[in-house]
């Protein structure tokens, strides 16, 4: 198991906030899950985490009013915000985009990324560009 911290410039605050856990292998996570149904979104998020980790990225998650799955930090700055979901639909679109936009505004990012299973799109919202790409396309960038 791996964990990531909620991003904060204060290391003390990072240490006391809850961590998000990821498995080294989706198969192991599925076999050891107590859930009776496959959570495709969580498995996809785990795959993106593993790709970012393999690429040597320093990764965190964001949570204030909303949540964004991943923040990528380089040197002393957040350079990328990434949201992951299996599919973007009317039930989850607002939640996924709102979490991403909140993180982008907090760290003054002009562009954000939503990684999903098989959709592709680009949207301008509140002066910010949101790229929607299939997993595998942009998870390491």
The percent of residues in helical segments reads 25-40%
Number of helices: 4
Rg, Å, rounded: 15 Å
Give unreliable regions as ranges.
29-34
How would you describe the overall organization of this protein?
By secondary structure, the protein is an alpha/beta fold. The chain has one domain (2-134). The protein is 29% helix and 33% strand. It is built from 4 helices and 8 strands. The protein has helices at 11-16, 26-31, 40-54, 93-106, and strands at residues 2-4, 20-22, 58-63, 67-74, 77-84, 111-116, 121-125, 128-134. Strands 3-4-5-6-8-7 form a 6-stranded mixed beta sheet. A hairpin with a 3-residue loop joins strand 3 and strand 4.
Keywords, please?
8 strands; alpha/beta; 4 helices; six-stranded mixed sheet; 141 residues
Overview in brief:
This protein is an alpha/beta fold and 141 residues long.
List the helices and strands and how they pair.
Elements: E1 2-4, H1 11-16, E2 20-22, H2 26-31, H3 40-54, E3 58-63, E4 67-74, E5 77-84, H4 93-106, E6 111-116, E7 121-125, E8 128-134
Parallel strand pairs: 5-6, 6-8
Antiparallel strand pairs: 1-2, 3-4, 4-5, 7-8
């Amino acid at each position: 198991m791996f964990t990531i911290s909620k991003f904060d410039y204060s290391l003390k605050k990072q240490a006391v906030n809850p961590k998000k856990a990821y498995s080294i292998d989706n198969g192991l996570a599925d076999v050891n899950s107590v859930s009776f149904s496959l959570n495709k979104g969580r498995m996809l998020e785990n795959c993106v985490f593993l790709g970012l980790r393999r690429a040597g990225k320093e990764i965190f998650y964001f949570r204030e009013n909303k949540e964004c799955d991943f923040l990528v930090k380089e040197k002393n700055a957040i350079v990328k915000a990434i949201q992951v979901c299996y599919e973007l639909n009317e039930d989850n679109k607002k939640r996924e985009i709102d979490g991403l936009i909140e993180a982008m505004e907090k760290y003054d990012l002009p562009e954000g990324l939503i990684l999903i299973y098989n959709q592709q799109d680009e949207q301008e919202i509140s002066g910010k560009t949101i790229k929607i790409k299939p997993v595998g396309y942009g998870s390491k960038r």
